[in-house]
Amino acid sequence: MLQYLLQPGKEVAVFFGLATRRGGEVGKDESCALVHGELLRGELITAMGCTEPIAIAYAAAKARSVLGALPDRVLVEVSGNIIKNVKSVVVPHTGGLRGIPAAAAAGIVAGDAEAQLEVLSGMTEAQSAAISPFLKVVPVEVRHADTPISSTFR
Fold first, then answer.
1. Helix, strand or coil, per DSSP, at residue 134
2. How do residues 97-137 score in pLDDT, each as one tens digit?
3. I need a surface site. Which of 31, 32, 58, 131 has the fewest CB within 10 A?
């Protein structure tokens, strides 16, 4: 059983979408909203900017962290949906740079892997200025990953 506090002294108990409130009934829509709200609070993570380029920046920052140095070359393999969704999106704190190479470079040069999807939130102006020069000297290759597509839900 999950418990929610709607107002001081008004406890609501929710169990499989059914709810009761001391002193009155809670409607089905309100009950569902309570359950969904709790699920979202437990599952959502704050992201800075559009999630796809931030996910790429996070993965790149994590790779740099594991590598322990800046790489000599970068290969980013992503699904077609990621390619489509990132190609026109401005990566935060990059001075207007767009696309997968910019997202990967931002994560590598200035990303904080510990910050997860807020990987670029602590970027300084000096770090931001270092992204374009990095892209000029380090090749960043983007490949379409061979990923299975499934639209069947069971």
1. helix
2. 999 999 999 999 999 999 888 899 999 999 999 999 999 99
3. 32
The residue type found at 101 is P
C-alpha angle 30-33-35 in degrees, rounded to nearest 5:
110
For residue 94, what are the contacts with CB-CB under 8 A and spacing of at least 6?
102, 106, 128, 131
Q: Residue 96: which H helix or E strand, with range? A: none
Q: CA 112 to CA 57: how far, in whole Å? A: 9
Burial 91-113 (b: 16+ CB within 10 A, else e): bbbbeebebbbbbbbbbbbbbbb
pLDDT, tens digit (0-9, with 9 covering 90-100), for 127-154: 999 999 999 999 999 999 887 665 444 4
Tell me how far apart the alpha carbons of residues 60 and 107 are, in angstroms, rounded to a whole number.
5
The owner of tokens 């996910």 is 55
